[in-house]
Structures are given as C-alpha cells and as structure tokens.
Write a structure and sequence with these properties.
- There is one protein chain.
- This protein is mainly alpha-helical and 351 residues long.
- It has one domain: Na+/H+ antiporter like fold (Up-down Bundle), CATH 1.20.1530.20.
- It is 70% helix and 5% strand.
- The protein has helices spanning 3-11, 38-60, 65-73, 76-99, 104-115, 121-128, 133-159, 171-194, 199-225, 235-258, 263-274, 278-288, 291-294, 300-325, 332-335, and strands at 17-18, 23-24, 336-341, 344-350.
- The strands form 2 sheets. Strands 1-2 form a two-stranded antiparallel sheet. It has a two-stranded antiparallel ribbon with strand order 3-4.
- A hairpin with a 4-residue loop joins strand 1 and strand 2.
- Helix 2 packs across helix 8.
- The N and C termini lie far apart (65 Å).
- GO terms for molecular function: bile acid:sodium symporter activity.
- The chain crosses the membrane at residues 43-65, 77-101, 107-129, 136-158, 170-195, 207-231, 237-257, 295-319.
- It holds the Pfam family SBF.
Length: 351
Amino acid sequence: MNVTEDYQRYFSYSFNYSFDNGTSGNGTTGGFQSPFPPVMDKAINGITIIILFITMISLGCTMEINKIKQHIVRPSGVGIAVVAQFGIMPLTAFCLAKILQLGSIEAITVLICGCCPGGNLSNIFALALQGDMNLSIVMTTCSTVLALGAMPLLLYLYCQGFSGLENAVPYTGIFIALIMTLVPCAVGIAINHWVPRYSQIITKAGLSILLIATVAIGVMCGITLGSTVWIVLSPQILAVGFLMPFIGYLLGYTMSMIFKQNGPCRRTIAMETGCQNIQLCSAILKVAFPPEVIGPLFLFPLIYIVFQGAEALLLIFFFRMYQRFKPSTEDPIKTAEYVAVDNTVEVVKVS
C-alpha cells in the first residue's frame, strides 16, 4: 500500500465530526480508524501530559519574580514580543494553510501550532545568541499566561476562514491543556523563589526525563503507525514546518527593528516569535482531539520542532561567525589596563 492509498484509507471521513458525542453529522462514527490500541493510546496520552508538566516546571524554575517585576514596570519589549507572538505566528499559520490548500484537519493542526505561546527552547536559543535573557524568560511567561484567553480567541477567529471548522475546535480541551501549563509553571516559580538550590537539579532532571519520554513516544508511534507516519511528511506539511519558524524569526526581528530595540532585544524577540511551545501543541492534539479525528497528524509538532531547532542553530552559527570575524572598532590603546609597579607602568591586559 503506497502513501496515497494510506491517506485515502485514513482520511476518507466527513469532518462534520461532533466533538461532543464522538459521532459524525449523520450519527455514525467517523471513518478514520484509530491506529492505536486503547492501552497504547492511553500510555501515549499519559506520557504527553508528563512531558508537558515537566517542561513547564523546568521553565518555571528559570523564572525570578524580581526580574519579572522589572520588565512589567518597563513593558515595551514584552509588549512588542507579545504582539509578535500572537500576531505574526497565527497569521502566518493561517496564510500558509490557505496558500498550500491544506485539508480541514491539517489546517486546524497548523493553526493550533501557530496560536501556541512561546516555548522554553527560545530561552536556550536567546542565550546562544547573546540576547536579553531576562526579557526572554519574561516574554515566555507572559505569552504562556496570555494564551489562556488569546489562544481560544485566535483559533475561533481564524477558523472562520475555513469551511467546516467554525465549530470544530475543542475549546474545553484546549483550555484544560492551558491550565495544565500554568499550574506546573507556578510550581516551578515557587521552587525557584523559596528553595532556589533545587532549581538547577530539577531543570537538569526534567531535561533527561523529557528526552527519554520523547524517545519512548517516538518508538511507540513508529511501531504502531508504521508506513502511515509518512502521511505527516507530505510536501505541504513539510513546507509549513520549514516556513513557519523561519517567517517567525524574520518578522520578529524586523518588528523589533521598527520599534528601535537594541541588538540583544532584537535577537531575543526573534527567537521568542519563531519558537512555539511544542509540548503544549502535542498535548492539545493528542489529548483534546479523539484519535479518530487527529490520526497521525498529532506528530506534526515533532516536524515543526526539527525545523525550528535546525533554523535557530543555523542562525546561531552565522551570528557566531559574524562575531568572530567582524572588524574590531576599538582602540587597543584606550582599552588597555595598566598597573603601577615600583613607580613604573606596565600593561597587564589588552581587550
């Protein structure tokens, strides 16, 4: 059976699926047959939720209340970043879904990814680009909190542009998933505030568990789905995975230039705009949607994160090369440090 036959077999259903009762408009169950046995489906759901919890606790452990207050008092950078996050990325997802003529379930998958708040990978990338780390962490925090209202609203608005999607979004499931991000994030902030000595331990342990859990999901999906996983790797989906983060990085940097932010802030806002919370997106697609509807497309966030990371690493490489080979504009005589030794002056360091 080739990929085309797989696609027809697994996606030949009416999207007039009622998310309330699990049946289609004519009272029958949707034509997509879940590829997962019930036990494995529950296991993947559980692991997905665990990954989300661990990620958000680790993210909370990097946040400091005092630094958050400083940026709230001067919110210009955060304001620009929030506008970029919830303005650029959802619009980009909508335009790509329209231009590439994605199907209904593919479009809603891409829209959910585009409407997600910023992810914690942006903090790592901002650090590698010598960005403003305080701004990066505060931006991730603010976008996560604001997503509670912004994400359902944006999904409602953009779904109006697709026939059949007006009532297809499971808002209750998305709201629950967003709450699931805020609670562990608050726990992480509390740990970092009251017992900061445990923050680094939790963050490192969380990263290890995250990697193991991700590999476990990949293995289970590979064994169960087999060749049907290539449905997710259609040219249109790959194009979305490549273009969305790239456009986010580019337009985020451009917007910060328009508002005259300094270099570190520009690089930070670019990373925050292009990096989505993939763990939240995976949890929504896997838990909020019935497997008869979402099918293998819940793996789309894995495709996105590959392109998101690869493009960010490429930008980091070019930035480091620029830093290394750019001509020096400093006068060594002016930047030399001197020390007096026995009434003589010696140069001890030249920067």
